[in-house]
Fold this sequence. Notes:
The chain folds into two domains: 2-119 and 250-260, Diaminopimelate Epimerase, Chain A, domain 1 (Roll), CATH 3.10.310; 124-247, Diaminopimelate Epimerase, Chain A, domain 1. Helix content is 18%, strand content 46%. It contains four helices and 16 strands.
Amino acid sequence: MKLAFSKYHGTGNDFIMVDIRNRAMPEDADIIAYLCHRRFGIGADGLILLDKSAVHDFSMRYFNSDGYESSMCGNGGRCISAFARRLGIIQSEATFEAIDGIHHAKILKEEKQLYEVRLQMMDVEAATWNEDDIFLDTGSPHLVKVCSNLDQLNVNTHGRGIRNEERFSPGGVNVNFIEEKDDLLHIRTYERGVEEETLSCGTGVTAAALAWAIKQHIEGPVHFMTRGGRLSVHFVRTDDKFTGIFLEGPAAFVYSGEIEI
C-alpha cells in the first residue's frame, strides 16, 4: 500500500506525520521503524498519527523511531498543531488528545512553511535536586543533569549509561544535560526509544526549565538553546507544583510525499 505523509521538525526534532482520519495505517513496529530509518526509509526521530476525536479537534499518537508507541512528545505536539493548521482542521488554536491528557495549542505566527507554536503542557509536581541531577515527569520521564563543557560532552555514551540505570527500570529515562552561558540554558538530550542524542526535545526542555526554576529559585520564562534552535518555557510556580506550563518555539513543514509500505 502507498502511504501519504508529511515531514515536520521542531528545532531539528523531526517527525513523519500521517493523517489517519479517513484511512488506516498498519501499527506494526517494524514498519514504523523502517519509515523512521534514516538510510532505508524517510528518516525521523518519530512518527505521529493524527486521528479524529469525538470531543476535540483531533487526537495525537506518538511512536519513537524504534517503532513503539511512547509517551508525550512536546516538539511533536507543536508540529502536529502546525500539521492540523495546514490540513485546515484548525485556524489559530487547537485542543487535542494525547497519551498524557488534553493539550491546548496556539499558532502565534505563520509564514509560508514556518509556524511559531505555543503548546500547553501538563501540570508537573515539583521535586528535589540531588547533588547535580533531578527527576521530573513532564509527560515523559526526564533526568536533568548540570554539567560543564557541554559542547565537548559525549551525550550518547553518558546518556545511554544513565538511561539504562537500574533506578529507572523497566522503562528507562530521557537524559538532559544543561549548562548556563550567555544568558541562556544550553541543553543536549539523549532520548530513549530513539536511543541517541536528538537535536531537541520538547518535554526535556520543559523538564530542564522547571528543574532550573527549582534550583535557582526563579520564575519563568526560561529560554533555551538546543542544538536545533531556540525554545522558551513559561510557567506558574507554587510550592509543590508547576501549572500554566507552555512550550513555545518554531515548527516547520519540510515536505510531503508518498512511500510504499
